[in-house]
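DM from R.C. (forwarded with permission)

"hey, sorry to bug you on a friday — could you get me a structure for this? deadline for the figure draft is monday and I only need the backbone to look sensible"
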Amino acid sequence: MKALSFRIMGAMAHFRKVFSNSTSMSYYFPPRTTVMGIIAAAMGKERDSYYEELNEFEYALSPVTGLRKAMFGETYLDTDEVSVRSLRKLKQGVPTGREFVFPSVDPYLGYQVLVYPFHDGMEKSLRSPAYPLSLGSANMLAWVEDVKAVECEEIQEVDGKVMSVSQLKPEVEKNMRIAIEEMVPREFDKERHTGKLPTYFVELNAKPMTVKGKAKGLRCGEANYLFL
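My reply, with the result:
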């Protein structure tokens, strides 16, 4: 069985948490819905046109660089009343905070993504994207590397090394940094409703984790990847 494998790289990322309001908090990794959006942009899909089509595929990902977050203050333009005064920023703006994801050591941030089953059209599109790609926000520009088909097999019972999973028990080892991300969107319906919001955990040093439990995923060579 073949899966599509690629790396998405960039300088920084912002994957806004669905429950954040005035302060824009970020997940450490792109949710499944964001991965679908990246692929849809590469394929030239129109906004809100691809949810059902791309939801038929399974997605797994793993960070290839260490992860850290930083919060920065921003001042938004107050557009409640549009005027020359507000557009020239003579009127007081709206202060807020925005959280970003950076590589902890490496010069660039990156994630390994697997799409199952393999789709030839996706591979061609990722090699030459129709629209610019980003890591979350449109201004977090990104690029794709190492696009290829890989041989894998499906797994149900898990007792191996993976990146992030839902509803499983990790074995915490020395020098690991594990973060729990709650309420992560998995899919959209036609009305952009997210439905159930699962919880995931991720190792922030990009090290493989040993987990035990039952979950669907892929074994590609010696590595196990669980579907988001």
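R.C.: lifesaver. The longest helix spans residues 32-43.
me: no worries. Residues 9 and 64 are 9 Å apart (CA to CA).
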